[in-house]
Amino acid sequence: MCGRTFQKTPLSEIRALFGTVNPLPNFAPTYNAAPTDTLPVVRLDRDGRRSLDLLRWGLIPWWAKNARIGARCINAMAETVATKPAFRDAFNRRQRCLVPVDGFYEWQKRPAGPKQPYAIVGAGGEPFAMAGLWDRWRPEPGAQPVHTFTIITGPPNELVAPIHNRMPVILPRATWRQWLGEDDATRDELLALLRPYPAELMRAYPVAARVGNVRNNDPDLLAAVDGASPMPPASAHSAL
Description:
Layout: E1 5-7, H1 11-18, E2 30-33, E3 38-44, E4 50-57, E5 75-77, H2 85-92, E6 96-101, E7 103-108, E8 116-122, E9 128-137, E10 146-154, E11 167-168, H3 176-180, H4 187-192, E12 202-206, H5 234-238
Parallel strand pairs: 4-10, 5-10
Antiparallel strand pairs: 1-2, 1-7, 3-4, 6-9, 7-8, 8-12, 9-10, 10-11
C-alpha cells in the first residue's frame, strides 16, 4: 500500500510543471502526509482544463451511505481498479487524477527489531506524479460536496521490492494526457499505463522511526539515518 507521502515543492512550481490554470490553493508543505489529510491533486475541470485542487485522501464513492468507506479506500489496486465497485465509476467517468508528491515512505520488515522506514524519491529530486482517482460525495441531498481521492498501487519495481511488496503507480509525463482524459484511450490502454516506474529513476534511503508518528511533520523526517546504508542501486537488485 501507499500510506504516507510528502509534498514540499512550492505549488507555483507544481502549477508550471503540470500546466494547471486555476488560482493556486493555500497549502503548506507537508513532510508526513497521511490518509484523511488534504493534498493537492491535478484533475480536469468542467471545461477540460487542468486544475490544481485540494482533495481529502481516502476516496468516498458518490453512492456511499456514509464517509466511513473513505478509510478503506486510500489505495486502489491497479489489478482491480476498473472493476471494483468503489473505484470503477471514477475510472470509467474520467475522474482520473495525478497526485504530485516529492516522494513517499515505506516500511521494510526486518528479521529482528522494528520495521525500518525508507524515503523513496526521484533520482534527480524531481516530483512524482502518482496515478489516482477522485470522486464527489454529498452526505445528504443539497449538502456541500466532499471531494476525495485515492492513490493507485501496483507491483513494486526492483528498487522497492526489497522494502515492500506494493508501490504507488507513478506516471511518466508522456502518459499524463491519456490518464487525465485529454487524449482518448481505451480501457486496456489505460490499464497498461499502470506498471512499475523505472527503478533507475528512483532512489531509496533509510530514515528515522519518528516518521511513524503522524504528529511529526517537519523537514528533519527526510534526513537519512546516520550510519545507515541506502538501498543498493537498482542494477544490483536486478541480479537477485
